[in-house]
# Entry
Amino acid sequence: MADIVLDGVTHSFAQPGGGQLLVLDALSLQVADRQVVAIVGPNGSGKSTLLRIVAGLLAPDAGHAAIGGLAVADADPRVGLVFQEPRLLPWRTTLDNVSFPLELAGVGAAARRRRATELLGLVGIAGFASAYPQQLSGGMRQRAAIARALAREPSVLLLDEPFSALDSLTRERFNAELLDLWQRTGTTILLVTHSISEAVFVADRVIVLSPRPGHVIADVPVPLPRPRSTDALDGAAYSSTAATIRAYLHGTPADHAAEEALAAPVHDVLDRVGTPAWFDPFRRGG
Amino acid sequence: MAPHVALSRRAGLSWLRGMLPVALAAVAFVVGWRLLVLVGGYPTYLLPAPETVFARFVRAWSEGTMAPHFAATMSEIAAGFVVGALLAVLIGYLLARSPLAEKLLSPYLVAAQATPILALAPLLVLWFGTGLASKVLICALIVFFPVAVATMVGIRSVDGRLLELGRSLRASRRQVFRHLELPAALPSIFGGMRVGVTLAVIGAVVAEWAGADRGLGVLINLARGSLFDTPLMFAALLTIAGIGVVLYVGVLLVERRLVGRWR
# Structure
């Protein structure tokens, strides 16, 4: 069983100027085993933070997260993560990128190769095994990233705006393929997205988060039958569900300038890169 | 004839065409040199003509004058470069990852680098003798700084998002170094090594000047002082310059092999 339970999860980041920025406020959420749940919300509502807490990359200040009844471990191995950017290692071929998690886990070379080849077939880029990431299109890179996330056969797949860099046609195709993949692998999926149509098409339930500090303001069930095809995007059930979600999102005060400002500190924490300096006593912080 | 043979011949031809300006520049250099000697009328002990130097170069090698000195200098450079570069990568990593180490060590490293190796060499020879040890030490010292700084900058430039990926995959500290930090820093490290390898040549010659019984630096001293053989001096200089170019290209080739495919 790989159901996800978040109970009263609260998280805040230290701000550069001192003080704490509350990002998630007593957020509770349950996702049943093999369910697909999409999370939508304005920038800065803590969607990415939420995913990192489920993945065990961040520990919540209060509350707890569990998968299958067991508390989430530090960098939980039951979780496969797909980031907004593919994050492929540029010095490795596609095949070696997909087998990277297995290599870290100490899987033998032959087994690694077999599994990675199989995964490349699953995401439809079997012909590009020996290509380097720079030689792939954006869509193919993200396919490789999904294959890599599936390498250790996770029971939970977390996707953080995985298709936001793709054009809308490619994106629709990727959504359909994600569902196909879900049916074949049987993982529980938590998808963070900005696209209402993506959320409705893919998910069983769409969770709407409030602006920061994020908490659940609506839990909208999607009454579309499965398996779904892109034709479902034209139906009445689809339109009314999307309209409901949109109403919830717009019902919240949308201060765009504030949203932009709020998104920044979160990224600062995640993308902290050392500055190349050498013996500079005037450098601050060092 | 298969089509790819014709193609590779065409590739070879275009390579030749690419090298043409290089060859022309070399010819112009030698012609300019010859003209300078001709017009200036300089005596051989001041500026020997290119053909005189070339003849002396060939004779020095065929008579066995050059070989032992070449071998001595070469082994000093090789050992010094390997020791210096290896230490530099290790210390560079430490400096990149430990702010305390950087704070404590970097003033001394900068001071050591700022002190001219020429002034430091006699002291090191006094301490470690005129044998191989002092030469390797001086070479290693001069190679160390550029490679250490390049390593530090390279390790620090690793994308934080890749490090987060490593963390999500539960990579150990050693795996993070081996699979994320080192490959990402490699282009930068090689940049430092290219500078370092040419400095190693300088280090070896300087070290030999400070006290040695063999080596190309010694040969230059001999040719200038007791032998009064300026063409031999030029021949030795030519050999030293050749070593520098060959080693530089060698590092470049290794770099291409290791990082060329994905860059």
In short: Residues 171 and 233 of chain B are 56 Å apart (CA to CA). The radius of gyration of chain B is 23 Å. The first helix of chain B runs from residue 3 to 40. The domain at 66-259 of chain B is CATH 1.10.3720.10 (MetI-like fold).
